[in-house]
Amino acid sequence: MEYAKALVPVSVVRRVSIVGKSFSWLALPAAQPRPFKMTTYDRCQRIGLMASSLEDLLSKTKDSLFLTCPLLTVVLEEDGTLVESEDFFCSLPNNTQFMVLEKGQEWAPVQAKKTEVVKLTFDLYKLHPKDFIGCLNIKARLYGMYTVSYDIECMGAKHVLTSSLCCLAHVTNTVGHLLLCGSSLILQYFSESDS
């Protein structure tokens, strides 16, 4: 060190050190705080934070979520990518969603919510355009996993319908004859009792 001081005059060393300090101030401006979203391991707590560095994000996360573990890991919430370098952190866009993991915790993808218990589907279709009624397919989907279906084919529905209408016509005809006979018998009975 003494040898270097002997070769270079003191005024040059001062100027170089001043230039070095001013260059470092110009080249590395203070990072502006950016917005980020942070969630816990189980995704039950979510907070929004403003942080300028990864260390700043970790300290504000500890304070906001009341975390006591000294070793915290930050990952991207969407895919679990580990965020451990300042360069990678600075390359991320604003409003990036992070997940903080304590010791022993691992990232897991978001579980799809099962809201469907039973889904019934009724399909009415015709095998031939001239069919009168057609066929009915009933399909039940249970818990989004199991499927049960039943197919009702009404191929002779037109014949069954016409036969039932003919039978109904005969029954109404018979009932009509019975009513006429019954009313004529009642009239004869009352007319004989009057005379």
Measured distance between first and last alpha carbons: 155 Å
| Alpha-beta content class | alpha+beta
DSSP, total strands: 7
In spatial order, strands of the major sheet run 2-1-4-3
Strand content: 15-25%
The poorly predicted ranges are none
Report the radius of gyration as a whole number of Å.
44 Å
If you consult CATH, what is the topology of the domain at 31-110?
Ubiquitin-like (UB roll)
**Series of secondary-structure elements, N-terminal to C-terminal:** HHEEHEHEEEEH
Pfam families: CIDE-N
GO biological process, one term: regulation of apoptotic process
Domain CIDE-N: 32-109
Protein name: CIDE-N domain-containing protein
Polypeptide structure, described:
The chain has 195 residues and is α+β, with helices and mostly antiparallel strands. Among the domains are: 31-110, Roll (Ubiquitin-like (UB roll)); 118-156, no CATH class. It has five helices and seven strands. The strands form two sheets. A four-stranded mixed sheet has the order 2-1-4-3, with helices on one face. It starts with a helix and ends with a helix.
Describe the protein's topology.
Elements: H1 2-7, H2 10-27, E1 34-39, E2 46-51, H3 54-65, E3 73-76, H4 86-91, E4 96-101, E5 118-125, E6 134-142, E7 146-154, H5 157-194
Parallel strand pairs: 1-4
Antiparallel strand pairs: 1-2, 3-4, 5-6, 6-7
Write a brief caption for the model:
Helices cover 41% and strands 25% of the residues.
Notable traits:
single chain, 195 residues, Ubiquitin-like (UB roll), three-stranded antiparallel beta sheet, rod-shaped, apoptosis, CIDE-N_dom, CIDE-N domain-containing protein
